[in-house]
Amino acid sequence: MSIAGLQKAAELMANSSFSVALTGAGLSVDSGIPDFRSPGGIWERWDPMEFAHIDSFRRNPERVWGMIREIRALKSNARPNPGHEALAELERMGKLKGVITQNIDNLHQEAGNETVVEFHGNAQRLVCVFCGKRYDATEAGDPALGDPPVCSCGKILKPDFIFFGEAIPPNAYLKSLAMVEEAEVMLLVGTSAKVAPANMLPGIAVGSGARLIEVNLEPTHLTHAYGSVLLRGGTSEVLPLLVQEIKALMNP
Fold first, then answer.
1. Which 8-state DSSP code applies to residue 29?
2. Which of 84, 108, 120, 224 is the catalytic position?
């Protein structure tokens, strides 16, 4: 990460009246939740089209709960890392209006962010895909033990995150669009921005006049396409440095 890039990113955010973050799996890696698509990730062991498609769940929810238990076990020991905490601090400072997250781990809320748009849902909740009733995930008991949790209607519950074949929750989608259209700066954290439809949001932001800042280990297709300011490095290392630099500009 270059010092010049860090200073430029800090200037953009310090001078912005409306900044928004889009976060992805890379942010939660340092909390012990591996990227599902990375080598050794969940999709290497569980074919997503066989175990993470809504049609598979409807056909055989007991079988799909084998994968769900592994996801819940990963989350059970995860805690917010310095990257999450930095984003929460930016919101408290008034330099971040909110977070749009593709993650389902609830770590933004645990870190202290108050405006969080859950683009792909949240593993902390359960939902019945048959009657629509929702529950807290604690009602599922130990993530490694027991039968799948059952709704009062008698059907097996599904975690309230988006499976393949399901639509993005309309409220989350519309709120995300409204935020990126108003943004002057969009902070992309730990995401390659390749998964649709979240991958459309940076382009919409740029089309509305926003500048992009990327915090990633590697450049993405957005880096050159939109002239992003790239802060290359781990999110839990880079984001606290960005907060310090913004504070220095705001309180010389």
1. G
2. 120
Q: How far apart are CA 158 and CA 125, in angstroms?
A: 9
CA distance 94 to 91: 5
Instruction: State if pTM tops 0.90.
Output: yes
- 53 catalytic per annotation: no
In terms of Cα–Cα distance, which of 112, 105, 114 is closest to 42? 105
Structure tokens at 107: 């770590």
Phi-psi domain of 24 (left: phi exceeds 0; alpha: psi -120 through 50; beta: other): beta
Contact predicate 138/102, CB 8 Å: no
Helix (H) or strand (E) holding 125: strand 121-127
pLDDT by position in tens, the chain (length 252):
688 899 999 999 999 999 999 999 999 999 999 877 766 667 777 888 889 999 999 999 999 999 998 888 888 889 999 999 999 999 999 999 999 999 999 999 999 999 999 999 999 999 999 999 999 987 766 555 678 999 999 999 999 999 999 999 999 999 999 999 999 999 999 998 888 899 999 999 999 999 999 999 999 999 989 999 999 999 999 999 999 999 999 987
